[in-house]
Amino acid sequence: MTKVVLGIGCDRNVSLQTLQEAVAQALSSATLDADAVIALATIDKKSDETALLQLAEQHQWPMHFYNAQQLSQVAVPNPSATVLKYMGTPAVAEAAAILAANTTQRDLLVEKFKYRGGDDKNATVSIVRYRNAKR
Question: I need a surface site. Which of 72, 80, 103, 134 has the fewest CB within 10 A?
Answer without folding.
Answer: 134
